[in-house]
Amino acid sequence: MNKRQFKPSTRTKMGETMKRVMDLNSDMGEGFGPWSIGEGADEAIMSQISSANIATGFHAGDPNIMQRMVSYAKQYGVGIGAHPGFRDLVGFGRRDIKASSSELLNDVIYQTGALREFAHWQGVRLQHVKLHGALYMRAAVDEEFSIALIKALQEIEPSLYLYCMEASVTYQVAKRMGHPVVREFYGDRNYDKTGSIVFTRQVGQLDPATVAARALRACTHGVVRTVEGEDIAIDFDSICIHSDTPGALALIKATKNALTSNGIKIASLSEVVPR
Question: For 187-198, what is each residue's pLDDT tens digit?
Answer without folding.
Answer: 999 999 988 888
